[in-house]
Amino acid sequence: MRRVYLDNNATTPVHPEVLEAMMPFFRDQFGNASSIHWAGREVKKYLDEAREKVAALMNAAPEEIVFTGCGTESDNMAIKGVALALQEKGRHIITTQVEHHAVLHTCQFLGNMGYEVTYLPVDSYGLIDLEELRRSIKPQTVLISIMFANNETGTIFPVQEIGEIAREKGVLFHTDGVQAVGKISIDLKKLPVDILSLSGHKLNTPKGIGAQFIRGGTKISSLIHGGSQERNRRAGTENIPYIVGLGKACEIAQRDFQKRQDHLLRLRDRLHQGIIQTIPHVELNGHPTKRLPNTLNMSFLYVEGESLLLNLDLEGIAVSSGSACTSGSLEPSHVLLAMGKSHIVAQSAIRFSLGLTNTEEDMEYVLEVLPRIIKRLRDISPLYQKRGSH
Ligand code: PLP
């Protein structure tokens, strides 16, 4: 059976060039980058080079990059690190209702510790009201944490404008760039962002490596104490093979940027058009244009997303649904609910997230299989029989 992987916002396959770049560091290049002898010096060179490549992708300076274990760790470091460093100034944080749980649960943790957190609502595209953001800032606000692009819908936030408001009010701005880095162009020399989090495995490295951009001079406490690695920002012997892999992935993302954009957009739009043309009662979730080039989130009304996901899986197609299965009950996505979508729309959502390995044949295969499955599921759906009443 054909296998089509359309869940690249969850994770991506490892790029062969990334794996190749990593291999020597599992074999001969085993040194500790902190050692001053030859074994250490050799790997230190590659550590520095990887840092330069990650920085170059976002037009940052190498000394502004800190390697972490994953995107979740970067988000935690940013939010808790600023909250700790600036607790004398105040204990108020602003975020949105549609963040990834790495941000939401970190904010909730701080909420339990006595911090005040404002969760900004979003409109039907998943975007915040900038005036509401401005009004939410108080003298005791220490951090604004708003994602660059949403992982479920792909909606891209106005990071430039958010950063300008943060600057004007003297508040630090962290953006969760996990889904954005490598997919859209990011210039940190121009963007008023203080901290940005990213993750390797969304960028074709193996899982277990992340990074953070911290603009020079930003006040932030370290969460991991020990040695003086990463300029005392994150102690622990550096994970050289994975760091080298992330460097390579960023180098490739920069090198192939336009090619990738064109490829993803072309395939995604073919899929979108094909769905609209062949399947009735569908809705796009997310912004029609301000959206990641690889993400297509659609609701297939009167069908349960989870059933659709399982049926697609039986045909070899891997996607993600807008619901998370928690203790046996289907919880509609917090992102779609925050966008004002009804339970029917939210529960019938499917996210197709494309990647480097996808082809036109993949799209044609999905467009051949999907209408058939939808028809079958609708034929047995009581909701479909009673349609018109929601
Ligand atoms: N933030 C966003 C927007 C994400 O999509 C993800 C992963 O899905 C994360 C953070 C967490 O990244 P990691 O899986 O590297 O911990």
Structural description of this entry:
This protein is an alpha/beta fold and 390 residues long. It folds into two domains: 143 residues, Aspartate Aminotransferase, domain 1, CATH 3.90.1150.10; 240 residues, Aspartate Aminotransferase, domain 2, CATH 3.40.640. It is 39% helix and 16% strand. The chain is built from 13 helices and 15 strands. The model has no long low-confidence stretch (mean pLDDT 96). Bound molecules: pyridoxal-5'-phosphate. The site of pyridoxal-5'-phosphate has 14 residues, from helix 3.
Which helices and strands appear, and what pairs or packs with what?
Layout lengths: L3 E2 L10 H7 L15 H20 L7 E4 L2 H15 L6 E5 L4 H12 L3 E5 L9 H7 L4 E5 L13 H11 L2 E5 L18 E5 L10 E5 L25 H16 L1 H22 L3 E4 L9 E6 L4 H10 L2 E2 L1 E2 L1 E4 L2 E4 L1 H5 L4 H5 L1 E5 L6 H20 L2 H4 L5
Parallel strand pairs: 1-11, 3-4, 3-5, 5-6, 6-7
Antiparallel strand pairs: 2-8, 7-8, 9-10, 10-15, 12-15, 13-14
Helix pairs in contact: 1-7, 2-7, 3-4, 8-12, 9-12
